[in-house]
Amino acid sequence: MAERIEEPEAEAGGAPEQASPAAVALALGRAGKTNKAFDEDARAFLRKQSRLIDLQTEHLHEQRQVILSRLILGRWKDRVTLALQALTGVVGLVIAGAVAVMAWQAHQDHGAVIEAFSVPPEIAQRGLSGEVIANQLLDRLRELEADTVTGRPEASYANDWGGDIKVEIPETGVSIGELNRYLRRWLGSATRITGEVWRTPTGLALTARTGEASGKTFEGAETDLTSQIQHGAEAIYAGTQPYRYAVYLQTHGQPQQAEATFARLAASGPSADRPWAHAAWSTALLNQGDLEGAALHGREALTEGITSGYANLVQADTGLSHEEDILSAARLVAHRADKGVRTPELPDRAAGVATHSAIAFDLGDYQTAAAGFREFSDMGTGAVSTEGRAAAVRAQPREVEALALDHDVTAARRLLASLEMLATNSSFAATSRTAQVVIDQQMEDWRAAADHLEVVVATIRALGPASRQFVHRRDWSQLAVGYARLGRLPDAERMIAVTPTDCDDCLRARGEIAAIEHDRTGADKWFAAAARHAPSTPLAPTNWGKALLTLGDVDGAIVKLKEAHSLGPHFADPLELWGEALMRKGDLHGAAPKFAEADKYAPRWGRNHLRWGEALMLSGRYAAARVQYQAANGLDLSKPDRAALNVLLARTASAPLHG
Predict the structure, then answer these.
(1) Cβ atoms of 625 and 595 closer than 8 Å
(2) Which of 358, 498, 510, 539 is spaced 20 to 30 Å from 382 by Cα?
(3) How far apart are the C-alpha atoms of 651 and 649, rounded to whole Å?
(4) Does domain 112-245 have CATH number 3.40.50?
């Protein structure tokens, strides 16, 4: 419907009225009949009409100005009205937004609020008012939090105060503070702590409670109120922050109570706390020497994505020599890191580097493993946390082992020498000596390896029950092999007999000792068991193939070496042994490519260059053989291999070797 347009009101006095149209027409008619007899009345009339028109024109012009002024004023009036309405709306939105923010903050309130305690008037008069008691309790709770050191992120707790502990003092009247307090009570989930102090026949009693739960009461002499407040704070901390309290107990000389709390949380605690409880329980068991339990609960934590569960699992399964479990755990963490799944303790990059390095190590790709351990060590060296720096230190001997197993003994020795300054405790010293053992083994210096292992065994046995299990499963088995290679077979049998048969190192050691004793049946038995126990790693079939080659079963050795190569395609040892087996069969043209392929993964392996040169020489390629001999001459070699190379270099110094 069209809007009605209001006409502006006429000014006082109004405009002059117009003459009748009929009168005007009559006057014009009379005036136009003859010029001479022009009617004077008509002329006068027309003059008046002309003046009237002028007046009307002037009036309309003035009226237009008035109308325009009123329209302009009306427009400004409308704008001011709209502005006031908008301002009112904005103020309303600001108030509503402020209330919404307060409501959201109230909803997100997960801290702890201590209300003033109820105290007897005579005690309050002496300065121990309810507010004073509440503040004393607040101080004790903050001290407990400060004394609890854990790498667990605050956001992962089922009930996290986030350091937000405060005393609440009620306000009188209606205020923003009272509104905020009401919203926090209504919408928030803060832990509310209340309590009271009263007299007893022997002194004072203090009760502290959280929420609607029953409180715990602590009695004592009136002069011992500080101790009662401390006990009350510990009771509240244990009830509301059980994981943190267990960590507090563990670091303050109460490991059994801490372990019991972790066990309870792992079994029936909040879902957010259970994986962390498994991880902490795993650490406690690891410190007590229960490697099986530590591995079990580390795996439970790892299933839920807790990285510390992986670290404990690796330590425990390394002690148990369970390589398949280590490999599967590393693959799980690496997969998560590759997919960008964040871990609570480590950055994605660090977790990925650590686990990919472990995978490469277990699959015989020692070149990749050494580079990864070096990168992880560099990342951890600059870490802020103690755990990060400790991980970096542990990675350094692993890099030494990887370099030695990649047959770059010179680099391994150089790195180990640079790490000696870090050997500030017996545990690290033992780990460094174990790395030295790997170097000795690669150089086939069995006497030095046995001497170092004897020191390792004695050192680690003194560290505690956890280390003893580690010794029995790894170092004892390697020492047994060292004794066998030194011809001390009774000592070897005695040492290997005390090791368990669910241990990869122990099973392979039994197979090696049987091969040294020329016991083909025993060697097959124990290497087969080792292959079943760790079906995804190439070590068992590699050692089995090497043993069969020593025992004269060349075709059987090639079968096992092919299997090892399929499991560890970047593992140089099966390829080099495969080349030696083909040489035994007279397949010199087939052997040389195996040595060449092994060189891609262990380019500084002196023995591989030596055998490569022999295959080339025997196939008539004397110049190419000389190149390999010269390469081997600048690399690490065992004493027998060095002696053989010296003969070959001397005989090919001026002319090709014939015959």
Answers:
(1) no
(2) 358
(3) 6
(4) yes
Residue of 641, 640, 614 whose CA lies nearest to 627: 614
Token readout for 486 is 């030194």
End-to-end CA distance of the chain: 120
What's the predicted TM-score (pTM) here? 0.74
Residue with tokens 């004397």: 622
Q: Is the pLDDT of residue 7 over 70?
A: no
- Indicate the burial class of 613 (C-beta count within 10 angstroms; 0-12, 13-18, 19 or more): buried
At residue 164, the 3 state secondary structure works out as: coil
Greater confidence (561 vs 425) lies with 561
Helix (H) or strand (E) holding 527: helix 520-533
Mean pLDDT of the chain: 81
Q: The domain at 564-651 falls in which architecture?
A: Alpha Horseshoe (1.25)
Q: 510, exposed or middle or buried, with CB in 10 Å at 0-12, 13-18, 19+?
A: buried
- Report pLDDT for 463: 67
The three-class DSSP label of residue 654 is coil
List the beta bridge partners of residue 214: none
Residue 4 pLDDT:
44
- Whether residue 565 contacts residue 542, with contact meaning beta carbons closer than 8 Å, is answered with no
The Cβ of residue 636 has, within 10 Å, a number of other Cβ atoms equal to: 22
Please report the sign of the dihedral spanned by the C-alpha atoms of residue 558, residue 564, residue 570, residue 574. negative
* Residues 422/393, Cβ–Cβ less than 8 Å: yes
- Cβ partners under 8 Å of residue 33, min gap 6: none
Could you give the CA distance from residue 470 to residue 456 in angstroms, rounded to a whole number?
11
Q: Which H helix or E strand runs over 166?
A: strand 165-168
Which residue reads 């839920």 in tokens?
A: 304
Q: Where is average pLDDT lowest: 13-17, 297-301, 604-608, 648-652? A: 13-17
pLDDT of residue 236: 84
CA distances from 419 to 367, 383, 436, 495 (A): 20, 18, 12, 31
CA distance 412 to 399: 8
CA distances from 462 to 205, 235, 574 (A): 49, 38, 38
Burial class of residue 289, CB neighbours in 10 A (0-12, 13-18, 19+):
middle
Quote the CA–CA distance of 262 and 251 in Å, as a whole number.
14
- pLDDT for residue 323 is more than 90: yes
CB distance 214 to 110 below 8 Å: no
| Residue in the structure block whose two tokens are 């000795």 | 440
Separation between Cα atoms, residue 251 and residue 640, nearest integer Å: 54
Q: Quick one: which of 605, 538, 638, 601 has its CA closest to 366?
A: 601
